[in-house]
Amino acid sequence: MSNTSFWKSAYQLFKPEEPLTTPEDLKVFYVQRENSPVDKLVSLLEMEDDPAKFLLAGHRGGGKTTELRRLEQKLADTYTVVWIDTQTSLDRYNIGYAEVVVLIGLQIAQAIESNWLFKKDKLLDALLDSLKSVIYEDKGSQNEGLGVPEFIEKAGIILKRGLTREVTKTLNVRPVLSQIITRVNNIIEAAEKEQKQKLLIVVDGLDRHDQVTALEMFSSPLLIELNCHIIYAIPISLRYSPSFRQPMEAFQKCLDLNNPPVFESDANLCPTSNPDQKGREILINVINKRLDTLGDSHKGLFNPDALELICEKSGGVMRDLVRLARTACEIGLRNKLSFVDLATAQDAVREVRREYNLSDYHYPELDLIHRTGKLTTKTHSLPKKGDFIICDELLQNKLVLGYYNSMQESWFDINPILIEDLERWQVANNNT
Length: 432
What we know:
This is KAP NTPase domain-containing protein. By secondary structure, the chain is an alpha/beta fold.
């Protein structure tokens, strides 16, 4: 096998932007972590007769999509699951609760058209009329005579561009959104009666939005008015923001997807420098499970000390773990190596570290969190951003990571890939 083929086959196993979504991938690559929210959600849904609304919080790249796909598979025999991916269907820079409500309506309409067999014409027509009144307002489009598939396709393209700027200028959109929800609820009621199976909607991708957008979106009561079980993925910064405490009470429960810790906390939930062996073992298994599919030719591709460093500097975030492994493979090919040694892993860490940006006002908060394990509510102001809580920004940008101890108590620490930056700041400020 050529050097290029050798490294390429390993490199292709580590795709940081691709969660595990297929049954085959989950079977081959998935590694069970402690206290996965999936089992909790399965139990909670079994206990709920009335429509329940849940939130799933975690860091970007922490594995929420993978866990939700596992949930979808576990419930496939007992629920009709409608998966909604806002990341691919909506513009991340022009999104609000209006777009989310309309997208849910569109996906329900598509599910009816392709899967559900009950007498649907009148209910579907009523929903489509409501959707058209929002989507085609002020568009100048000719839409008469479009079939349902053509309408859904065209509406999806318009929705991708965003409704907020164009529609809300000319239309009081809230009553129409309420009408959409009412008509979706009529369909849900009929579908569940006909299918003899409850409906579960999974809304993925909303965790990728900034704090202000996410807070406004989830503060809207419209997102909890659907008469079915629904799960929304949310940013971890929103989960811990003081501004979200009251809106969060409208949901039955907010579950957390924990990062496997790479260091231990002490009895007071303060970070330590002691490696968390159980957490690191999970991360090592994630890498080894992928390499095992390549057989003996790639056994021991990562030296133990290189693997240890990559796991540590990932901070337990799955996407970052995979990115570090991928980068190490690319460096291995570039340097014509036959395995990843510690020096190669260090080079990979330096390359990935460049993706993080620290500002002067971050360091005092990072220092305090690293010493106490706790978030603060200290604010900062920027000309284009106004006042904001610094820790919200630190969490959103993965400059700070959240963990749980064995008692399910939360604690926080600086992302390990940034610890050298903090240590340099501490020396410069005589704050060691």
